[in-house]
Amino acid sequence: MIFRAKKVSGLTSGAFDISFASMDRIWKFDGSMTVMPSQESITKAKSKINWKNILLHKEEQTVFLKEKGMKIGFGAIGKGYAANRAKSLMQEMQGVHGGVVNASGDLITWGKSVQQEGWLINITNPKDKEVALGYLQINDLAVVTSGDYERYVVFDDIRYAHIIDPRTGYPTTGIKSVTLVCPDAELADALATSVFVLGKEKGLNLVNQLKNIECLIVTDEDEILTSENLKLNYF
User: Fold this and answer.
1) Burial zone of 85 (CB within 10 Å; 0-12 exposed, 13-18 middle, 19+ buried)
2) In the 8-state DSSP scheme, what is residue 10?
3) 3-state secondary structure string, 118-129?
4) CA-closest candidate to residue 204, choices 196, 231, 212
5) CA 67 to CA 74: how far, in whole Å?
6) What is the mean pLDDT of residues 101-120?
């Protein structure tokens, strides 16, 4: 998984980086943070972020973090990995002909749906989690939504969401939610975070260059943007 995470880092020019975890020391979104982190502390933590300094030795199955104080975390890819593994295990079960794995918002479907039109997956409205923007009709695909509306802090009337830009050390801005659709939940998980960091223009440009991968973005202004081949059905 670390090897694949580094591949995504290369693909996104560092917008995705599992060594962002060094920022966990200063940005906390569990209700315990009462003051804004200082510029000095952000700069110090950001200096430990560099996916190229995660060294893997395939034969010995080892991981080495080159810089003292580095830290890695799988918050932006781990749920997708878990969803893939759960799907793989369930596919081996006798009598199970299809299903949906929901790993806390990371969905992956396979096989036959009881509904003739396939699996119908609602897309959450970031303004109201009880209301769907619309739905997707999919088969054998993953749908992963990342949003900034559940984990955040507010300082001086400014909301800081939990998705950190590893290039700046500060939370991302401009996007409320990103939904990624692709055959692999782990990749969808990583790319959803990447689009948040890249922003709407660069994020959509990246997705439009990738085969069999689609994206839906809701901006801070509630603008809905989609990649070239995504079809969102409205109720």
Assistant:
1) middle
2) H
3) CEEEEEEECCEE
4) 196
5) 19
6) 91
∠ CA 121-194-81, nearest 5°, is: 60
3-class DSSP state of 215? strand
User: pTM above 0.85?
Assistant: yes
| Centroid of chain to Cα 4 | 14
- CA dihedral (144, 150, 155, 156) positive or negative: positive
Helix (H, G, I), strand (E, B) or coil at 34: coil
| Torsion angle, alpha carbons of 83, 86, 91, 93, to 10 | -160
pLDDT tens string 112-167? 898 888 899 999 999 888 889 999 999 999 999 998 777 888 888 888 888 999 99
Closest CA to 142 of 106, 94, 173: 106
Specify the amino acid at residue 122: N
Q: What band does 53 get if pLDDT is binned at 50, 70 and 90?
A: very high
Q: Which of 211, 218, 212 is nearest to 195 (CA)?
A: 218
**Other beta carbons within 10 Å of 211:** 5
Q: Which domains does the chain have, with CATH numbers?
A: 2-65 (1.10.3980.10), 78-226 (3.10.520.10)
- Residues 51/6, Cβ–Cβ less than 8 Å: yes
